[in-house]
Each structure stands twice: as structure tokens, then as C-alpha cells.
Design brief:
Blueprint (H helix, E strand, L loop, with lengths): L5 E2 L8 E3 L4 E2 L2 E2 L8 H9 L2 E3 L6 H9 L3 E3 L3 H5 L2 H12 L6 E4 L21 E5 L8 E4 L2 H16 L5 E5 L5 E8 L2 E8 L13 E3 L4 H18 L3 E9 L2 E8 L11 H15 L8
Parallel strand pairs: 1-3, 2-4, 2-5, 5-6
Antiparallel strand pairs: 7-10, 8-9, 8-10, 11-12, 11-14, 12-13, 14-15
Amino acid sequence: MPHAELNISTHPRGPILSFHPLIVGDFNFWAFSAVTEDVLEALRRVRCVIFPQVFPETLYHLARERGLSVFPSYDYRFRFPGKGGQYLLFRTLGLPCPQSLWIPKIASLGPHPQAAAVKWPRMPFVVKIDQEHEGRGLFLVRDERDLKEALERIRTFEREGRYGFLVQEYLPSPHDLRVVIIGPRLLTFWRKLGPDFRTNLAQGGEIIPCPDPELEEKALALARELSRKTGINLAAIDFLFREGEALLNEINYVFGRRALGEGYEELLFEAVTWFLESSEPRESER
């Protein structure tokens, strides 16, 4: 059965360039097309650009440098990349998050004479490899053996040219909360622990009914504040909790859709339409 499509090629906020396979604009290209003169000419002629969740970062910068309106808004995705970048974003915005330490590479641990002294938190704590997703690259460090295993895995990543990891306080809980932002909508999904300490559905977690409406409201308020301060309009925000306080854990710009099911495309099309309606009119309409 073919996927539905959203045709925005006649929208008054156009002309529009779409890199999304299910959204038809005035100009349409695969997100991983070579950047030919045709692509550059399209970028010169349009007012808005629609991206999928996965595409070359440079395309986004090309669009933004030209002052174009874009959906999704990924300015902060690329300014503060990875789990470490997100932690620093939360701290920069003054938003509550778990106590953490970002380490850009193992060499940061020493012995460079000007390296900041690193003090490991009390065990247990969590180590998160910067660019891994869906619960992979996540270690619960309970003892020195666990720490050694995590650092060996990180060294493997560094040999592949991938650097950075986050050390985070461990906040044990039978569940966590994901808030999915899709345009103007915020959808909540509580997740029960899987076989280990992770709640990701890909790692055996389960969707459960809301166990605490008051905590959910606190998380929703925080998600709205994050969206207002950054413009984020398509992402899954994960929350942890400490003594009745909601804490921002991660922003997932590329997120699984198991919980959303077949309704995702309809929600996405609604969000794109909302984005276009809230964009500035083109010159001929003013």
C-alpha cells in the first residue's frame, strides 16, 4: 500500500523546496542528491524548505544562510550536537537536567598538565556514548569492572573517529516519560523498564498508562519552555525524575515511531501545514 502524500506545491507561502519523499513542493529532490546547479537554483528561488529527519547537515546550513524558513527547525540540533551538546544546551538555557559531565575524549582524563581535573561521581552512574541511539552505547557503571568495559567501548569508537561521552547521575525509576513534539502538538508516552535499566522500546521497554499526572504536567511545561526557547518543532524529548522534579534527559531528533503507529504521517502533514500557515507571507502578498 503506497504512503500518503502532502502536496504543498500550490501553497501561497511558496515557492517551496522539499527534500522529504512524502511532501510535494514546487521543487523536489532526494535528501542525499548531489548538490548540483539545479539544487542550488532551487534554493535561490524558494522561500521555504522541508527536510526529512535524516539528511546532510550542510543542506540545512545552505538554506539557513539564505534566510529561508525551514521545517523542522534544527538550528539547535546542529549547534549543540550529540548527548554532550544537549546537556550543555540545557545548562545554557537554565533548564533542569540530571547532574552530568561531558568528556570530549578519553585523553581529557589526563595526563595533560592543563586538563581540568575529572572526578568520577559515586557509583552507580551512567555512561552515554555521544552519537548512539535507541539505548545503544549506554552503560550502567556499578563497579570498576563496568567502568573498564565502558571505557574500552569508548576507545573502540575513538579509533573509528567518533568522540565524546557523557557521565550522568543514575536516577533509578520503574518508568520514564517521552514527550513527542510534532508542530503544535505534544504527545506523551510513559515507558516501563525493559529487562535491564533502559526503557527504550527497541530495548524491551513497554508503553504504560500515565502513573503520575502531576509529573506529566511538569514535563509538558518544561517541553513547552524548551520548544519556545529553541524553536524545536519535531523531536522526542525524554524526561527523568528526581524527588518530584522533571528533568530534561535527551532530545531525539530522529526517533522511533512504534508508539505513534500509523498516525505519524498524518501528524507530520498537519505540522507542516501549521508551519506554513505561521510563516511570513512572500513579498507579493504584503
